[in-house]
Amino acid sequence: MDFIPMPELPTQPPTSMTLTEWMDSLRRGWENTKKALTEAAQNYKVQADKHRSLQPPFKVGDKVYLSTKYLKLKLASKKLGPKFLGPFPIEKIINPVMVRLTLPCLLGKIHPVFHCSLLKPAVTSRVRPAPLSPPKPLIVQGGKFYEIQK
């Protein structure tokens, strides 16, 4: 037979919470939880904003280059194809991060609204002017000929 000791009896009278005290403690706990969640959300936003880049302020009429990242172009090799197309003028600014471009018919049925992360502003400088479009062929007696200038 094992000896089982008697449990010690409490020397202080038990303190039981009343219903109102219990409800108040629950309410305080809920308020503390909401406060902690709000602070955590603010801290998350501060940390996330450190890694966000500001989009350049585009205006209607500005020229931008369009990334070919998500475009399906008919090329022999996407790797050797152009990284950007354009420049294309901005037709409308839908919201701070979405822009509608005026695209040529050559690109086919591409939806003209793009996120600003896919656009790069077209900068023209005096040192390196914008590339000229290729000369149009001269049509002489039904055939196409190019005029050579030196």
TrEMBL record:
Signal sequence segment: none
All copies of domain Tf2-1-like SH3-like, residue ranges: 61-122
InterPro entries recorded: SH3_Tf2-1
Protein name: Tf2-1-like SH3-like domain-containing protein
Source organism of the structure: Micrurus paraensis
